[in-house]
Design goal:
With about 270 residues, the protein is α/β, with parallel strands linked by helices. It is built from 11 helices and 7 strands. Helix content is about 35%, strand content about 15%. A hairpin with a 2-residue loop joins strand 1 and strand 2. The mean pLDDT is about 95.
């Protein structure tokens, strides 16, 4: 992705958006800024709340030797970073990243029987309209809600059973939406919970989110991102998270998004 100018990368990524949005000059930062404004208007979510997402994920990334960004940041630094699409600032946005990831999937009974084997107990995909204007609500990503419901039903797992999650935080507002749409928090309450450290390593008493640093801190090499999420969960469930280990994690959830929410994929893994 870094072989090209940022504006060329942005234009290519918008291939996952609606034609009318592309022709009007919209970019994904602009579309997610619309979602952010809607959430702020409905639930009094603040720019500082969104900044707290970036702070958490950069802290996690600082403990991940494979992350693109190795330094923690502060809410003040996020707030002072340059505006990209109001209210989203530079440090609210995931970066342009190079990277690769791979996993091996098998049904070999000899390997599946091993104590270290991680099981995919559910995998679900759901879709919504490409464009924001065609959606019934800007306060949620309906595709995420649908995919999550199918995955929970298939696995018999509830949101409260999830110990660790890797979610699609392409922008800070995206993680807030994901926390609500995946059923971890009631609509409108996730931002404050994240600001309190409720999903942060060392502070969370239940769920840790994006211990890798997420798209925001670890990086977002697009095609590799979804596989990287699963690889991170496998490490976590096997107790190999090094300095970012979620102690005792037995159930993990991966959540990946296409475009501004036209597609969502949810995997649930156990050990």
């Amino acid at each position: 992705m870094t072989d090209h100018k940022p504006e060329d990368v942005a234009a290519a990524l918008m291939g996952a958006g609606r034609e009318g949005e592309r022709l009007s000059g919209a970019t994904f930062p602009g579309l997610y800024a619309i979602l952010a404004r809607a959430h702020m208007s409905a639930f009094s979510t603040t720019e500082e709340d969104m900044a707290a997402v970036a702070v958490k994920n950069h802290y996690h990334a600082s403990r991940n030797p494979k992350a693109q960004f190795q330094r923690p940041i502060t809410v003040e630094q996020v707030m002072k970073s340059s505006c990209v699409a109001d209210p989203l600032k530079l440090l609210d946005c995931s970066p342009i990243s190079d990277g690769a990831a791979s996993i091996i999937v098998t049904s070999d009974k000899r390997l599946v029987a091993r104590a270290s084997a991680v099981q995919i107990v559910a995998s679900a995909v759901a879709t919504d309209s490409l464009g924001l204007a065609q959606r019934t609500s800007l306060l949620e990503l309906a595709a995420t809600k649908r995919a999550a419901k199918v995955a929970y039903d298939k696995s018999g797992v509830d949101p409260k059973d999830i110990d660790v999650a890797e979610v699609h935080d392409c922008f800070t507002i995206a993680e807030i939406l994901a926390m609500e749409d995946l059923g971890f928090y009631k609509k409108g309450s996730a931002a404050a919970a994240i600001s309190r450290g409720s999903t942060m390593l060392g502070k969370s008493k239940r769920l840790v989110v994006n211990p890798s640093g997420g798209l925001k801190g670890c990086g977002h090499p697009v095609g590799a991102t979804g596989v990287k999420q699963v690889a991170e969960l496998v490490d976590q469930l096997r107790g190999r998270g090094n300095g970012r280990q979620v102690v005792g994690a037995k159930v993990g959830l991966a959540h990946n998004v296409g475009g501004s929410g036209a597609t969502a994929v949810v995997h649930i893994l156990t050990i």
